[in-house]
Amino acid sequence: MHSKILAVSSSTDVSSRTTGWQPDHLLDNYQLLTFDLGPDPDGEDPITATLVRRSERVEKPVGAVLYVHGFTDYFFQEPLAEFFAARGYEFYAVDLRKCGRSLGEGHTPHFTTNLKFYDVELTLSLDKILTDVGADADVLIAGHSTGGIITPLWLDRLRTSDPARHSRITGLLLNSPWFDLQGSPVLRSPITTAVIKAVAKLRPKLVMPQELSAAYGESLHESAHGEWAYDLVRKPLGGFPVTAGWLNAVRDGHAALHRGLDVGVPSLVLRSDKSHFIGGYDPKADAADIVLDVEQIARWSGCLGNRVSAVPVADARHDVFLSVPRVRERAYHEVDAWLTTLPGAGSSAS
């Protein structure tokens, strides 16, 4: 398995690696562009990533947001984008390689053997945002679930490897970040970790035996018990298969977090106040995190470094911004309060 990571140098011309902005084929009033990521270290060429933005631009922006989705996920959370736009932030979201809009023929959905590989599209996205909004723009990074472990690892590396780029980032917003492997302690034991690593080396695309429950998807999607409309090809109710190589990459990321990171900026960590693990949908799924263990999120949030605000949101779903209306309004209130504490915070609209 290749370990080389395609570098993005400080002199990279972003325009040479992208298409121009085009209408988004999934969301009205949004645009997308595609990054050519070059050879795939995991051997599934060609690979691209997709940056999405609102078509309507913010007048005199106070900054920008780059949002990173989770596993079995892609960007469709328009109210989140509108929330930030109303407060003067240009909103961008990236669909990572083999995810969402970037999932192509011959790709194993969401497959990677190293979370560091995502540094390429994250850095290209940051550069494009700075080109769009201004080289001195303040940029907030937002990550959900798996995106919530990918982004702090990237920032920790960027802080030391590229201080100039890192200096444009002023905050990190994490929405139910995946900070540890949920379930029985046996799954987190050194023996199990070693077995996962060995299998990942020999058969990285081996599908792990445990199937994901469809309960979370059913709690969200309008075709079942939810209110949200999204593409079930890109975000199936029962989730994509979990591969050994991908799981090992995530566990390596968890281990790095547990040793301690320094993301270099203030962080806000939002999560539900409780977890509720179920095999099939029941109404409790609408008022709890049924994907991750919120106690693990609480335990490991302090390992981000810098100043961390960890806030439980009562009755929130796994994606707190997809909770029922009264709950997500509380989550947005917490973000509003946090924004005022950031260095150089601009005035916000109500």
TrEMBL record:
Keyword annotations of the record: Hydrolase
A GO molecular function held by the record: hydrolase activity
UniProt KW Signal keyword: no
Domain Serine aminopeptidase S33: 60-273
Superkingdom in the source lineage: Bacteria
Signal peptide: none
Record flagged with keyword Ribosomal protein: no
Protein name (Swiss-Prot/TrEMBL): Alpha/beta hydrolase
Organism listed in the record: Gordonia asplenii
